[in-house]
Specification:
By secondary structure, this protein is an alpha/beta fold. It is about 45% helix and about 20% strand. The protein has 2 domains: about 160 residues, Nucleotidyltransferase, domain 5 (2-Layer Sandwich), CATH 3.30.420.40; about 170 residues, 2-Layer Sandwich (Nucleotidyltransferase, domain 5), CATH 3.30.420.40. The longest helix has about 35 residues. Bound molecules: 5'-O-[(R)-(carboxyoxy)(hydroxy)phosphoryl]adenosine and zinc ion.
């Protein structure tokens, strides 16, 4: 996958930006090889609250981070001495959790005299298709998770251009919130997909947000409101399944339609060399979403790659890979590097069109 052969690099990755404490070891030679990928989920601790509670998340990361790092090394059959570097997520994310993982990475780097690489969580997701697939730069990426919904031209390390992003909720957030109004548990996406499997998507009409509108941005708030209104009047299980199917179809269609627009922009810049669509993030697990994207890709002569589910959702292998690719380019960070709750991948786009009103610290994501 690399353009020039280089000596193999073995990098420990650490990820703690949300509710998974993860560590992984990736060896990057000509192609990346995941030697281990360990994830301790905090899922059960947040379930009673219907969402991730930042303070609980930070404490839970601190409790297990050492064990998870040890487990990743053991699973890889390696010791700290075998590493070429340590990569840790430095943002964006829940700051308490990010600080735990970054501090752990700094400790390993300092104690073992290893280079530290502070990785943007979004760059990790952006590179995740390369863990298992043949995905040469540049490709078009749809990143769809509970916290993010954006379209990026991924040209390489530090070279991601944002073509569009959600102006309100992320797609996963929309799945989760609508699932809640349907009485489904947290996280709602997978539960909603199961319910939708028996439903008829044509029974309820939902707004087709931004359909035909210029640009590649997303919006799900109107859909959320309309679905909540419909859900309030439902009595039977069949009706709930039909509404779930309609919601899933509406989200999948919007994702596909906006991606189609982004394809045109991406091709303007990269021509045929860019004819590859990749998807990442937890929502990529959704069968209807994958099918809609695969259809758009086929229609426009794009290849389509989706990483296996374990690398779509938050994991440390993608952080280790981003770290290894950075290390190969000589891009390392000082031990003083700060954790960042907000850290847009494409700073120019974030300043032009902030996803959130910029606060003192600038655009969030
Ligand atoms: O990437 P991820 O694990 O975490 C971040 O948000 O960063 O994504 C989790 C999101 C949740 O909103 C979850 O409901 C959604 O992905 N999700 C799904 C499915 N599996 C996970 N949404 C729809 N259908 C699914 N099968
Ligand atoms: Zn994520």
């Amino acid at each position: 996958m690399s353009d020039t052969p280089s000596p193999p690099l073995t990098v420990l990755g650490i990820e703690t930006s949300c509710d998974e404490t993860a560590a992984a070891v990736v060896r990057l030679a000509d192609r990346p090889e995941v030697l281990s990928s360990v994830i301790a989920t905090q899922f059960e601790r947040h379930r009673p609250y219907g969402g991730v509670v930042p303070e609980i998340a930070a404490r839970a990361h601190a409790e297990v981070i050492d064990t998870v790092i040890r487990a990743a090394l053991d699973e890889a059959g390696l010791d700290f001495a075998d590493l070429s570097g340590v990569a840790a997520t430095a943002g964006p994310g829940l700051i308490g959790g990010v600080m735990v993982g970054l501090a752990a990475g700094k400790a390993v780097a300092l104690a073992r005299n290893l280079p530290l690489i502070a990785v943007n969580h979004l760059e990790g997701h952006a590179l995740s298709p390369r863990l298992t697939e043949d995905a040469p730069y540049p490709y078009l990426l749809l990143l769809v998770s509970g916290g993010h919904c954006q379209l990026l031209s991924v040209e390489g390390i530090g070279r991601c251009t944002r073509l569009g992003a959600t102006i309100d909720d992320a797609a996963g957030e929309a799945f989760d919130k609508i699932a809640m109004t349907l009485g489904l548990g947290y996280p709602g996406g997978p539960a909603l997909e199961r319910l939708a499997a028996t439903g008829d998507a044509t029974r309820y009409t939902l707004p087709r947000m931004l359909l035909g509108r210029a640009g590649c941005d997303f919006s799900f708030s109107g859909l959320k409101t309309a679905a909540a209104r419909q859900a309030a009047g439902l009595t039977t299980e069949a009706e709930r399944a039909d509404l779930a199917a309609a919601v899933q179809q509406a989200i999948a269609r919007q994702l596909a339609e906006r991606t189609e627009r982004a394809m045109a922009l991406h091709l303007e810049r990269f021509g045929d060399a860019g004819r590859l669509l990749a998807v990442a993030g937890g929502v990529a697990a959704n069968g209807a979403v994958r099918a809609a994207l695969a259809a758009v890709a086929a229609r426009h002569g794009f290849g389509f790659v989706a990483p296996p589910l374990k690398y779509c959702t938050d994991n440390a292998a993608m952080i280790a890979l981003a770290g290894a690719e950075r290390l190969r380019l000589g891009l390392t960070d000082p031990l003083e590097v700060a954790a960042r709750p907000r850290w847009p991948l494409d700073t120019d786009a974030a300043l032009r069109a902030p996803l959130h009103t910029p606060g003192r610290k600038g655009a969030k994501a």
